[in-house]
Structure formats: C-alpha cells, structure tokens
C-alpha cells in the first residue's frame, strides 16, 4: 500500500485531493491502523500534509522567494527551503557575444565565459540559468563542477571577484516550447525572466538571464512607515 501511494503521488494522481482514511481502507482492503501508519510515513517523507482531525492533502513544493533590495542567490534560496539545489550543466565554454559584451561595458569581440545550467529543486526543474563573465576574470571557472556549486562562491574563491551589487529586472514571459520541455511545465504555466547585471565595486562582472517557473517563484518586498519601499516598473 505504502509503495503504491508513493508511486501514485509521483504520477500526480492526487492533484485535486488526497483520499480520506475510509476511502483508503476500502480501496486497499486494510485496517485503519495500516492506513494511518502509511499516511504517517508519507507525512514524514514530506509527501503529504496531515494533522489530527484533518484530511491528509498532498504536500505542495516550497515556493522560492526573491527579496527585493538584496543580493539574491537561487542556490541559497532553494537550500533554505530544505530542498537540494542541483544543476545539469548544458554549456560551459568561451565565446564572443557582442550584445552581452556591450552590457558589460566591453569591446564586442571580448571573450566571455558562458555557463548555462538547468537548475533543480530536489527532482523538479526550476530554472534555466545563463551567465556570461569576462574571460580575463573567470577563466579559472572553466574546470569547476557546477552541479552542486554556487557561482558567486567560486567566483570569489577562485577568481577573487565578489559581486557586491548591480541591477536587476524581473519580467513575465511566455516560455518557448523548448523551454517548457526543459522546465517540465505545460502551456498554462508562465515564467519569470530575471535579467541581472552584477557588479564588483561598481565594475560590471556578470550578465545573467534566468528563466524561472512562475508557479514556484515569487518576488517579495519589505516596507515600513519610516522607509517605505519603491518598485520601479517599465
């Protein structure tokens, strides 16, 4: 019974509602004690949410939040929810890109280290992350294993470059067919595109575009009567 419920949860059979105790007793022909033990195990594994006197329900993936006004790390934000952040590296090479070089204040022919990753929260695809860095700064990163590594950590430790600020724009986009396949989402799910210019002491050292699932990501802001807050939209 327990193994079958796990399998059905993985196949997304209970997106509307998880069966109640009596329904599971009838379906599997087992005692209420067996059902309760199975639900307890699923709860301990984080697959369902259940409490005394409440009907169990399927646990929803934790939402990743990006606070405004702070240097954001998707790696740290995912890990803070208790999930494991891992990546599949799709590209790590050196190339020229005149548009990106101009954004970094460089000559169009300047070689850039380009890193593209498909990033996961546990087993779920979360974001497609594309980063460009000046090769003269980032060449030591070409042999780094980025499957479980935060870029800013190794950029600082290997290259002596610490991203201390910059600018960022978050906008809603419609993912392409290929991007939907990578992220494992249907046509009804939107996405956010995050454009970031990262700087070290006012010097541009990173251009990044991150396409992240909108059903797993939100932008948050703190405000107060004294300081207020401002969101600039374009």
How would you characterize the overall build of this protein?
With 234 residues, the chain is α+β, with helices and mostly antiparallel strands. The protein has helices spanning 2-10, 21-28, 32-44, 74-80, 98-103, 135-138, 151-159, 177-183, and strands at residues 48-49, 57-58, 64-67, 85-96, 111-121, 124-134, 165-173, 191-200, 203-213, 217-220. Strands 4-5-6-9-8-7 form a six-stranded antiparallel β-sheet. Strands 1-2 form a two-stranded antiparallel ribbon. A two-stranded parallel sheet has the order 3-10.
Summarize the structure.
By secondary structure, the chain is of the alpha+beta class.
Rg (C-alpha, Å):
22 Å
Strand order of the largest sheet: 4-5-6-9-8-7
Describe the largest sheet: 6 strands, antiparallel
Shape: elongated
State the distance separating the first and last CA atoms: 53 Å
Overall strand count: 10
Averaged pLDDT: 82
Number of helices: 8
Please indicate the percent range of residues in DSSP E strands (runs of 2 or more). Answer: 25-35%
- Indicate the low-confidence ranges by residue numbers: none
Tell me the structural class: alpha+beta
Succession of helices and strands: HHHEEEHEHEEHHEHEEE
Key words describing this protein structure:
single chain; two-stranded antiparallel ribbon; six-stranded antiparallel β-sheet; alpha+beta; 234 residues; 32% strand
């Amino acid at each position: 019974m327990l193994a079958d419920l796990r399998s059905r949860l993985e196949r997304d059979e209970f997106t509307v509602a998880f069966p109640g105790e009596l329904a599971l007793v009838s379906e599997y022909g087992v005692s209420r004690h067996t059902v309760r033990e199975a639900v307890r195990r699923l709860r301990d594994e984080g697959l369902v949410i259940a409490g005394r006197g409440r009907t169990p329900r399927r646990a929803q993936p934790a939402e990743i939040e990006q606070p405004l006004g702070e240097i954001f790390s998707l790696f740290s934000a995912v890990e803070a929810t208790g999930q494991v952040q891992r990546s599949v590296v799709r590209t790590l090479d050196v190339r020229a890109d005149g548009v990106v070089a101009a954004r970094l204040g460089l000559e169009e022919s300047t070689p850039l280290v380009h890193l593209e990753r498909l990033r996961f929260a546990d087993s779920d695809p979360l974001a497609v992350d594309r980063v460009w860095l000046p090769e003269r700064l980032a060449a030591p990163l070409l042999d780094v294993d980025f499957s479980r590594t935060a870029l800013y950590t190794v950029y600082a430790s290997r290259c002596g470059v610490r991203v201390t600020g910059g600018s960022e724009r978050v906008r809603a986009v419609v993912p392409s067919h290929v991007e939907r396949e990578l992220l494992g989402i249907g046509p009804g799910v939107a996405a956010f595109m995050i454009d970031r210019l990262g700087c070290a002491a006012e010097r541009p050292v990173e251009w990044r575009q991150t396409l992240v699932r909108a059903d797993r990501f939100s932008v948050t802001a703190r405000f107060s009567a004294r300081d207020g807050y401002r969101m600039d939209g374009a």
